[in-house]
Amino acid sequence: MNIENQPNTKPVSTWGLDPLFWTPAKLFVGDLHAALPSDSASVFFIGTHVVRTVQAVGIVVSVDTRSPKLTVYNGKHYSKHLDDGTGVIPCAQFVAPDEVAAMRQTFDLGSTVSVEGRLSTFRDVRQVVIRSIKHIDPNQEVLGWLERLALRQFLQSSIEPQI
Amino acid sequence: MDLEPGRPVFLDELVQQPQLHTGKTVRVTGTLHAYSPVTDRAELVDGQYLLIVDTQLLGVQQYHVGQTYQLIGEIDSVADQAPESLFDDAKFSLEIVLRARVGKSVDGLDMAVYKKSVHAVRKFLDT
After folding, report:
1. Which of A102, A23, A25, A103 is nearest to A57 (CA)?
2. Which of B27, B56, B90, B104 is the most exposed place for a label (fewest CB within 10 A)?
3. What pLDDT shows up at residue B109?
4. Who wins on pLDDT, B124 or A146?
5. Confidence (pLDDT) at A77
6. A13–chain B nearest CA distance, Å
7. Is the CB of B108 less than 8 angstroms away from the CB of A137?
8. What is the pTM of this model?
9. Contacts of A126 (CB under 8 A, 6+ apart)
């Protein structure tokens, strides 16, 4: 069942009262792709809730390292694609050049990881800008699915009529 | 990059309805029953059901027979893919093979909880 995403028409000053505004929302990747963008680049609507940061769990299915075109930052853009069975989402991270090799070895293809970060859209592609990433046990991934189902139930039951 | 998500499926579903999953990207979990580095072929088992896996894309890694593996890849239709090492009452399909592109050992995964969770996710997301 899809969550009916609607823009939150309440004043922006009240968005901080939404419990999901401050915490990383545990959501399926499919729900991250379906989130409704707002006028702000870093805020999205899921249900009628306002979400900025998210937490996704899944398997790393693609790893890409490239240098950004901007020369101001002398680092590397490190991108992983995360697959949780409901969707695939790129997770981007900027690392210093000397940290790239370590990142590759730590989070290689097939790793089960939990990614927490800011949801954003870059060049029409939904992505997560990584704030933290860590290995998780496969059993923790399964637990993550159940947590996401529980939050989904809450989101579907708490859709408020918008004025 | 347009990658299809690997939808969790069970080996019995693949073996019983091979045509339904052909061309789709799936995530399968099972015990490694056999592996041949010469032919890049592995056989994954879950209960009585056996799936043939093409491991060419997985690269060089150690495979331990008897460990539980989770693989993501595309189901391809093939002809005459016979398993090399069968056991009694083995059920398999000669029509499909999994072209795995990502795989990892998931020893320690509670399969009973995993299966219940997959069913719960499907029930909730597909209704």
Report:
1. A25
2. B56
3. 95
4. A146
5. 67
6. 33
7. yes
8. 0.87
9. A32, A33, A35, A89, A119, A120
